[in-house]
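Limitations

Structures in this collection are predictions, not experimental determinations, and the ligand pose is part of the prediction. Treat each record accordingly. The example that follows, with magnesium ion as the small molecule, is included so readers can see exactly what is and is not provided: the inputs are given verbatim, and the output is the predicted complex.
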Amino acid sequence: MLIVQKFGGSSVANAERIRNVAGIIAENYSFGHDMVVVLSAQGDTTDELLDKAAELNAAPSQRELDMLLATGEQQSIALMAMCLEAMGLPAVSLTGWQAGIRTNADHGLARIRRVDPERLRRELDKKQIVLVAGFQGVNKFDDYTTLGRGGSDTTAVALAAALHADRCQIFTDVEGVYTADPRKVPGARKLEEITYDEMLELASMGAQVLMNRSVQMAKRYGVELEVLSSLVRAPGTKVKEVTRTMEEMKITGIAKDENVARLTAADVADKPGVAFRLLHTLSKAGVNVDMIIQANGKDGANDISFVVAQDHAGKAYDALMARRDAIGFDHISMDENIAKVSVVGAGMMSSSNIAAEVFEAFSDEHINIQMITTSEIKISCVIDAASADRAVKAIHRRLFETA
Ligand code: ADP
Ligand code: ASP
Ligand code: MG
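Predicted complex:
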C-alpha cells in the first residue's frame, strides 16, 4: 500500500514533536507500506521568515520571498530525515523541485501544473521513506515558487493523485474537521465524514484546517482524504464524494473569515454599465470580489459595496482610484474591521427555517449584519470583526447544541 501523509507546522514544531511524528511514520513503514511524507515548516517559521523579510524590505520581490519561505519546509524534511536515520530507518528528503513539483510562475500563489514522479518512484523502489517539502514547487525558469498559505495540504493531495496513493492522511493539531473551530467553540463536534463540496465551502469560508485548493484537487482526482491528529490517536474525519449521513445533515458547520475587507464606492451614477466598469477594473487588477451590494441613495446616486480578501484591499483601492472618472464615482471608503461568518450545509436550502435561526441568533446577540449572501449550500454574513467569535458561538449553540 502507498500512503501519503502530511504533517502541519505544529506537528513538527520542536524535536519532541518531530520524534512523535517519526514514530507514526515508522509504525506505518513497519507494516510494509510505501511512505511519502509531506512536511510543513516548523511552528511559526513561515511567519517569522516573513517578519525577517519585512525588516529589510517593505515590499520584497515575490521571487526572493519564495526563495526565503521555501527554506522553512526544507528545515523540517532534513530534520525528520535525520531523526529517522537515528532510528535506523532509511529516509531521504526531497525539495519540491527534487520531487518533481512543477508550478506556474505565479510567485506566492503558484498553482501546480504537474508532478513528475520519477525520482519519487525511484526512491520508493529502494524502500526509502520519502520526505517532501510542502508548500513549494519550481516554475519553468527553475525558480522556487510557493503555493499560498496552507499550501502543504495541496502538495500532499497532488502527490497522492500523481502516485495513485491508496491513502492520503492530513495530520494536524486537532482530531479532524469539526462543526466549528474547536479552539474557539468548545461545543464543536467532530464530523465522521464530510463531502468534498461541503469541505470546499468551509475551507473557502475560512476554516483553515484544510487549504481550499487541496480540497478542490482532491475532488477532481478522487483522492479521499482523512484529517486526523498527530498527537491523539483517534479516528479523524473522512473527506469524500458522498457521505452516509448526507440526507440527515442539513448543516455541516460554521466558519469565520477575518481576512476580509469591505470597499464602498460612494455616489456611483445610477446608469447602466457602472457596475460592469467597476467589476471589470477589479478583475483586471486580479482582485476577486466576493459579496456585492448596491444601495440606492437619494438624488439618483448609489453606493456599491463589495468584499475582497484583506490582502487585496490596497490593490483594489488603487485600481479603482486610477479609473475613478472613467467608472464614475465620488470616493472609496474601506473597512478592514469586518469578518465574514458563514453557515455551510448541503441540505440548507431545503429547510427555510435555518436562515431564520441564523438571523435570530445574530439578533439575540444584538449583532448588526452589514451584508448577506445565500447560495444552495451556504449563508454568509458580514459583521464587525469584534463580534465574530461571539456570533459563531451563538449560531453554533442554536443550530448544533440544542436537541
Ligand atoms: P496545520 O499546521 O496542521 O496545517 P492549521 O493551523 O493550518 O494546521 O489548521 C488546523 C487549525 O484549523 C486547528 O488548530 C483549528 O484551530 C482550525 N480550524 C478552523 N476551523 C476548523 C474546523 N471546522 N475544524 C477543525 N479545525 C478548524
Ligand atoms: N508553511 C506554510 C504556511 O505556514 C505552508 C503550510 O503550513 O501548509 O502557510
Ligand atoms: Mg494548514
